[in-house]
Sequence to fold (67 residues):
Amino acid sequence: MSSIRGPSRRFPYSEMTAARSAEHCAQVFGAKPLHVKRIYKVISEAHLFENMPDHQAEIIAKMKAAK
Fold:
């Protein structure tokens, strides 16, 4: 990312939000922004299944396999 606004009273978290962007993460790790977004999607979907009851997870897995 070439230009990041410095923190100010109006935008106190500008550097933090820029650092969390897929564009910045891709630049830091030498990857493409699309790949960063795909990894994020996989991780966020995995968290949905952590607390799910086993019978519901099995139903969703069968539905995905049928596609």
The longest helix spans residues 33-50. The chain has four helices and no strands. The mean pLDDT is 84.
